[in-house]
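User: Hey, quick favor. My workstation is busy. Could you predict this chain's structure for me?
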Amino acid sequence: MFATWVGANANNGTWYIGGVMAACGFLTATKILVLSSAVAYVCLALIGYIGFQTGVSTMGIARASFGLRGSFLPSIINFTQFIGWTAVNTFIAATSVSYLLHDLLGWPLWGQTGGLKGMLLGIVVMSILHIISIASGSRSVQLIERLGIILVFIFVVWESIIVFQHVSLAQIINWQVPTKLKSTTGSAIDTVAAFNLAWVTAAADFSRFSRKKSAATTVSFAGALVGVLWFAMIGLVSTISIAVSSGTYDPNNSDPSSIASRLGLGVLALLVIILTSMTANAVNLMAAGSALANIFSKLKLKYALWIVAGLATLVTFIPMILGSFLAAFTAFLDYIGMVLGPIISIIIVDYFFCAKQQYKIAELTNNQGKYWYIKGVNWAAVITWVLGAGGFFILQKATFLQTTIGATYPDMLLSGLVYWLIMHLKQKEK
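Assistant: No problem, here it is.
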């Protein structure tokens, strides 16, 4: 479990988040990464505990709170967000492939005239590698994760040495963000929250196989937190070091391939970046496949994985159509914060406060049973989710939250409270 969650976060997307967080400055970014990530992974530990206790995947658990048919809502959202994360990591890895082709064959880079062919080939190559990684099942996923962590550890140490050969820690700490590019504290907290909450809905998919409660909770929490802080800090320090040494800061150049190239890390670094994409996407594809299998109960997981791998390849082309990976990435994170926060709150509140940690597992697949509600839908959960998703937009525009704690966590607290109140009133009526 520790290796799974370290491997899930020791990837290109986490590195990129660290680079984007450089817009807050080193000290502020570090505080936000630690605190916002820790809160999100408390939720991961709670969902992990539910999975351990029930032996059911996260989307299976959602049937108890949303209803058997109502659980299609979180399943669709989970499906889309993990497709999105697969595409994010694929795009970053494809960028590494294009850099490899540039270094080895002299092909133009993405953004240069003729650079499109390198990116297209990169996307095709990465998609084939992802399909190969999931074709052999869980054993191949474990092998990729363990090999990936070893190589990533070596790579991180190597990159850290290179960075501090060029700049000192004092220079990185004292670097000032250009005023026009500076990010507000609340916006940065929301960015980190959305990034980390994306993993929470996959927690039970893995913790249900744990033999010990500690593996499902504290070990999962520690692994995810170590992974995100480890790699995000590398992205943060690397991006700032380049800004210090070059005198310019551009958040659009925070992707691992650009940084590795500018640091002169060479072909081996690009190969490690490609491998870390496979490590993270093994988890992404598994979670997306599980969500799809929950919607179509007769669909085997093997075929669900092939479907999500194909769809993720298509979604990877969106940043190329928009012309900006950063713009597509930011919009994607806003989507995650809006739709996932309320779902996570509802699942946690339902199990720990409404059901008092007592789910009837057999009823999770029983039409007309305890979790059938009204024609298979618990409208209390659906209405709460709609209010939570809408409330996110309202809270996001509040100046006080923009400059302090962001909108994501207050929205989750309010969503959880609303759901509990509705369910409490329903119980009183009975």
